[in-house]
Each structure stands twice: as C-alpha cells, then as structure tokens.
Amino acid sequence: MHPAAFIAAALAWLGRHGTQGFALSIFLGLALPQFSAMARPALPITIFCFTTVVFMRLDMSVTLGLLRRPAKLAASCAWLIAGPVLLIGGALLLVGRENLDPGIVLGLAIMGAAPPIMSSPAVAILYGFEPSLIIASVILTTIISPIVAPILVELLAGAAVPLDRWALTLRLLIFIGGGMAVATAIRFWLGLARIKAMKANLDGFGVLMYFIFAIAAMDGVTKAALDNPRLVLFVLGCVFAVSAAGLASSWLVLRLLPASERFMIGYGTGQRNMGLLVAALGAGVSPTTFLYFALAQFPIYLLPWLLGGIAARIRRREAADGR
Predict the structure, then answer these.
(1) Fewer CB in a 10 Å sphere around the end CB: N or C, the chain?
(2) What confidence tens digit (pLDDT) does each residue in 118-132 have?
(3) What is the distance between the alpha carbons of residues 70 and 64, in angstroms, rounded to a whole number?
(4) Which residues contact 157 (CB under 8 A, 6 or more apart)?
C-alpha cells in the first residue's frame, strides 16, 4: 500500500473510533509522563490545527441559513458565552476568591471566559446529530473570543490575578485569524466537496491531534497527583461540576431547542477551549493554573464516551418523532 493511502486509511479508522480514541488518549498521556515535557511546546500547534480544521469544514450555506433566522443561533451563542460566566462567577461569589489559590481562580476564570471546545462539532457528528447549530455557534463565539474572552477573564479573576488584557486580545486575534486564513487557503485549494469526502480522515486527524495534545497537557499531572492528591481531587471535582452544571442548565434554559441541539449546546457550555487562552497567555500561566487546565481535559476526553448512551437515546427518540 502506498504510504499516503496507508495514512489516509489509518486516519479514517481513528475517525470511526473517535469516542473511544478520546477516552484512551488521556490515559495514554498519563502513562507517558516522560514525554509530556517534550510535547508541551506542541500545545499551541495542536490548538492551531483544531482551529484550522473547524474553520476549514465550515459549510457557509448552512451558517448563512442560520443567520437568516438568527433567533436560535443568537440564543445559543448568548448562552455559550453567558452560561459559564454565570455558573463559575456565582460559584466564586459563593466561595470567595480570597479563599482559593490565585492559580485556581485564574483556571476557573479561563474556563468561564474561553469559547466552547473546538471538538464539540466533531462530537455531535460522532453521535449522529445534525451539527449545523453547534458548528455555527462554536465558530461565531470563537471569532469574537479575542474581544470577549479577555474582558471575561478579568471580570471573573478579579484584581487578585493581574492580566495584560490587551496583550491577550492581540495574541488571540493572531491565533484565531491565522487559523481562519490557513483554513480559507485550504478550502480554496481542495474545495468543499473534497473536504466533505475526507470526513473520516479529518475526524481521525482530530483524534491524533487530541492524543498529542493529551500528552502535552498531562505535563506534571502524575507528579502533582502523588505530591498533592487533595488538590488534584479538588480540581477534578471543580471541572466535572462545571461540565455537569453546563449540561443541566442548558437543558433547562434552552427548552425551545430540539433535544439533540440542546444537548450539544449544553456539552459546549461545560467543555471550554481553555487551551486557546493558555497558549495565548504563555509564560503568564502559573503551575497551578496549568494543572487546572490539564485536569479540565478529563471531562473533555471522557464525556464523549460516557454520554454516548444518552446521546443514542436522544437520537432514537428524534428519529421516531421524524425530526
């Protein structure tokens, strides 16, 4: 077999086993701590690849159709921005920022301010859901994140965590704008029809990027679990609580949406693209904040697999209803 054909077939196989691949990746990352420090510089590259692939796969006709009837899209985007801020901001007010490590406060602030995880559309596709709304919502909230996210980080973190908001805005603009430019060039070169035909290969490429990302993100996690297990358990409790609250609150608030779309907006509400802000902040991220970011990957990697049964029931119910 030609090497290119072999790579394409391998990526397609990974794409067909996406949810299992997500779950396996994070445990392989923990099992390979010796490679984590070496892989950590690759974090911005993998995030840039996610951004580029999502923009590359965007069907503009579907997005324009949603924009012609903007109420549903506007409500989804508004909740994807406001929901995490309300949930995390409320928790910080209840507990008190002064009672938490500043690194944990910044981690929570980044989680609340970041756009939805870029893999949300891929998860919707893996579940067999119609992905138009979540794709358009992720795209629009990501595009505006260079303006919105720094303001929200500063709002949630408070004066206890000093930030250069304008530097963060500029870095996000370069990061996201660069991804959009590369995606536009690839779309022009390949064409949308060919990109659609490569669905399984691109899904597999996403799983591969997540594997590399997992190794890089797990830098220091194994050591922290041994040195300070209470901190690790506390942070894990926080990130899974945000994930659960995002799903539950979206299910209640967005009751006018079909179940599958409500489910995926809830998924995006709880799963945030923290890596985008962590990569933009660079050396400004403390070890505790990076640990929070690393542990926040556990629900991102595990929930596509853990929620598969619920998604299947929603899909069957909608199919029976003729939706």
Answers:
(1) N
(2) 878 878 887 888 888
(3) 9
(4) 97, 105, 106, 109, 163
